[in-house]
Amino acid sequence: MISKTMQDALNAQINSEQASAQLYLAMSAHCEGKSFKGFANWLMVQASEETAHAMKLITFLLDRGGKLELKPIVAPPTDFGGIIQVFEQTLAHEKGITSKINALFELARNEKDYASEITLQWYVTEQVEEEANVGQIVEHLRAVGDQGGGIWYLDSKMGKRGKV
Ligand code: FEO
Asked: How many CA atoms lie within 13 A of 115 on its CB side?
């Protein structure tokens, strides 16, 4: 049986993953509104990955006999500025998620909750990948700027995510 502390922390993380999905959906719509269909696609795929992250934690919590307590999801903004700003905000958001995952991992370790620790290991690794991928997109965007042909080339590359 999972401890109440761990259960509360997992429920909070489930909410963070769902809020991430909501945020990336809003960002996707924002890009779509600017006719950047590739960036919109990338963010839409990201939104469904975030939902999968939440689902994985929900399954784990229930398997451990924990109680799922879904909370309200914070409404994201509707405007995120230029494309570079969209991805800078994505990177900042992922760094925030990494801190939360690390704190959760530390809690599992302190509680000697080995099952949670092992499950959370996947998230620690996933965050390394998330930050690296988004960091690279930010670098590429900064290199080409948000005017001119380069950004449309990047947009077409981003449109391939989830479609290969
Ligand atoms: Fe589920 Fe992008 O962190």
From this structure: 15
20 in ligand 1 pocket by Cβ < 6 Å? yes
- What is the per-residue pLDDT across 108-146, written as a single tens digit (0 to 9) for each? 999 999 999 999 999 999 999 999 999 999 999 999 998
Check if 17 has its Cβ closer than 6 Å to any atom of ligand 1: yes
**pTM for this predicted structure:** 0.95
Domain membership of residue 152 (yes or no) is yes
163 within a domain of the structure (yes/no):
no
Q: Domain count of the chain?
A: 1
With 0-12 / 13-18 / 19 or more C-beta atoms within 10 angstroms meaning exposed / middle / buried, residue 64 is middle
Does residue 58 lie within any of the structural domains? yes
pLDDT digits (tens, 9 = 90+) for 94-108: 999 999 999 999 999
